[in-house]
From TrEMBL:
Domain Tyr recombinase: residue ranges: 211-403
Organism listed in the record: Lutimaribacter saemankumensis
All copies of domain Core-binding (CB), residue ranges: 99-180
Keywords tagged on the record: DNA integration, DNA recombination, DNA-binding
Keyword Iron-sulfur in record: no
Similarity comment text for this entry: Belongs to the 'phage' integrase family.
Taxonomic superkingdom: Bacteria
Gene Ontology biological process terms from the UniProt entry: DNA integration; DNA recombination
CDD domains xref list: INT_P4_C
Protein name, entry field: Integrase
């Protein structure tokens, strides 16, 4: 590992330098204040200070949330306290033992909101924090908040409400930066994007600009599953299997019996079929089969003229339109019964087969399953080339448990029961 670059400038730092510097090292200013730039690009303000004869370092937050002027102000304040025999480090430790995230939000907003002239902007700041962050982080001490806590807040809305999630992340970062400067926590900011969350979450621009396929709302899943289970035909069975395995419709339509191991309860999809982004030279994608998926497979007929599991009437593979047609008929039947149909909660368009994967992804996030495990279930590429070289496990058995829980969620007939009650009342 290269030795850290240490520079003691003849002149003090400038705001422009702090914004643009990228070379790892330590860049000093005054009163022991320096900017630490790590190899991953993250930056942190640190102050070297002698407190009652003992030399130590205090973290003062990270730019741009904590600008140069604010870092200097805090460093000068700490220097003055130490010169008078005070202990800013002890004050920080005492404060960090008491302040929760909810309290930090209140303290921060009491200062920050006065900067906004726009009343709508002030309300949005508080609303996003109250709606998404406080329910999860509210009671947690700011000193204990880590990256995984931030992900619990962001992941459920990162794909469906990308712009809101992007702003929320920045606001959480600002609150925690204030908490660091005020002495309530130390270390790196877990809500920081560059070199931190950017390595875990997809870029907002890539998510927001994508024409997402209409998905089934989680609140409608159980009712939809009841309707689908009552449908006859091979296309309806294929759609059931796709939902149980969170697989692409193409992989399901082209699935063959020699890919299925009923004893080991595994479906092995050859490279190039599980995902268009996985080359044919890659590794097979293994799908754990739940009891529900096995029962469905065992109920299917087999014919000698086709090796496909879900065959068309003439023996070939089902067409993609056949699964879409089932989705349209389910939606139409709902409309005819005086209900709203099966609509995407965001776009208000009727759900389509590929959107069912988004439904599963949202469920997995809200249930707290690890991101990598959920992404593997969707046959998505996880991590960099280096990470994949060392992490060769596909978490098969852990995914089996997750998919079993997903099947139980699908079988929850509460939604279907409510629908039947409503229909009876209408009669």
């Amino acid at each position: 590992m290269p030795k850290a670059n240490i520079r003691r400038q003849e002149r003090k730092l400038t705001a422009r330098f702090v914004e643009t510097v990228s070379e790892p090292g330590k860049y000093f200013d005054g009163h022991g204040l320096f900017l630490r730039v790590r190899t991953n690009g993250s930056k942190q303000w640190v102050q070297r200070i002698t407190i009652r004869g003992k030399r130590c370092e205090l973290g003062l937050g990270s730019p741009p949330a904590v600008p140069l002027a604010k870092a200097r102000e805090r460093a000068l304040e700490n220097h003055g306290k130490a010169m008078l025999g005070g202990d800013p480090l002890a004050e920080r430790r005492e404060a960090s033992e008491k302040l929760s995230f909810s309290q930090a939000v209140e303290k921060y907003l009491s200062i920050k909101l006065t900067e906004f002239r726009n009343e709508k902007h002030r309300k949005q700041w508080r609303s996003t924090l109250d709606t998404y962050a406080i329910p999860i982080l509210g009671s947690k001490l700011v000193a204990e908040i880590a990256v995984q806590d931030i992900l619990r807040v962001l992941e459920p809305i990162w794909w469906e409400k990308t712009e809101t999630a992007k702003r929320l992340r920045g606001r959480i970062e600002n609150v925690l930066s204030w908490a660091t400067v005020a002495g309530h926590r130390s270390g790196d900011n877990p809500a920081r994007w560059k070199g931190n969350l950017s390595e875990i979450l997809p870029k907002p621009a890539k998510v927001a600009n994508k024409d997402n396929q209409p998905a089934l709302a989680l609140r409608d899943v159980s009712r939809w599953w009841v309707d689908l289970s009552n449908r006859e035909g091979m296309a309806a069975k294929a759609l059931q299997f796709a939902m149980l395995t969170a697989s692409r419709s193409g992989a399901v339509r082209l699935a063959t019996w020699d890919e299925i191991d009923l004893t080991a309860r595994i479906w092995t999809i050859q490279p190039g079929r599980a995902s268009s982004k996985i080359p044919a030279s890659g590794n097979p994608h293994r799908v754990p089969l739940t009891e529900e998926a096995i029962s469905l497979l065992k109920s299917l007929p087999r014919i000698t003229v086709s090796h496909h599991i879900f065959f068309a009437p003439r023996g070939g593979a089902l067409s993609d339109m056949s699964l879409s047609a089932v989705m349209r008929r389910l939606h139409k039947a709902e409309i005819e019964q005086g209900l709203q149909g099966y609509l995407d909660p965001r776009s208000k368009r009727p759900a389509v087969p590929h959107g069912l994967r988004s439904t599963f992804r949202q469920w997995a996030a809200e249930q707290g399953y690890p991101r990598d495990m959920a992404e593997l279930a969707l046959a998505h590429t996880v991590g960099s080339d280096v990470e994949r070289a060392y992490q060769r496990s596909d978490m098969l058995e852990r995914r089996r448990e997750m998919m079993s829980a997903w099947a139980e969620f699908l079988k929850n007939t509460e939604g279907g029961a409510k629908k039947l009650i409503k229909l009876r009342l209408q009669k």
